[in-house]
Amino acid sequence: MSSYYICSFKYINLQTLVYLLTSQNNILKKMRKVLILCTGNSCRSQMAEGLLSSFAADTKVYSAGTKPEKVNPFAIKAMEQIGIDISENDSNHVDEYVDFDFDYVFTVCDNAKEICPVYNRAKQVIHRSFMDPADAKGTDSEQLAVYVEVRDQLSEYFKDFAMKNIL
């Protein structure tokens, strides 16, 4: 006779419980880790973190900057338009992640590529520069349009990356 345990208000047998726990363990061990770097960790890397997290749920995505600043309100608005909330994200410094093991480390601006620390424990370091939307001038509407353009470029790039390398 099997033993049964209450789990989420349903009865499951011990064998099923062990299988579920083991499967979850394997998923966690296989979870990929990605770091996305830029200068301020306020726009491009924050948007890229939100996008890649939405494309690859089994991937832990981090972002950081060489000179971290507060997350840019226009970046938050551009991401809200597509249903991704980055308003609670924090800006982090690149040095916080030097001792982490990453599958991929991306630099999304030339400045970060030049001055970021070496990530010897990263399996692969990839550089792809994107325009800095923080340089946008004009009305709020015109500035937001630049953020949306950069968001869409990041989205296309990281969706393609996820399809080829993660999913």
Feature tags:
2 domains; alpha/beta; two-stranded antiparallel sheet; 167 residues; disordered N terminus
Largest sheet features:
4 strands, parallel
Percentage of residues in helical conformation: 40-55%
Q: Number of DSSP strands?
A: 6
User: Helix count?
Assistant: 5
Low-confidence stretches: 1-10, 24-29
Q: Which fold name corresponds to the CATH topology of the largest domain?
A: Rossmann fold
- Summed over residues and divided by their number, the pLDDT gives a mean of 86
Report the structural category: alpha/beta
Give Rg in angstroms. 19 Å
The termini sit apart by 41 Å
Detailed description of the structure:
- It contains 5 helices and 6 strands.
- It is an alpha/beta fold and 167 residues long.
- The chain has 2 domains: 1-30; 32-165, Rossmann fold (3-Layer(aba) Sandwich), CATH 3.40.50.2300.
- The protein has a 4-stranded parallel β-sheet.
- Helix 2 (44-55) crosses helix 5 and helix 3 packs across helix 5.
- The longest helix has 26 residues, at 140-165.
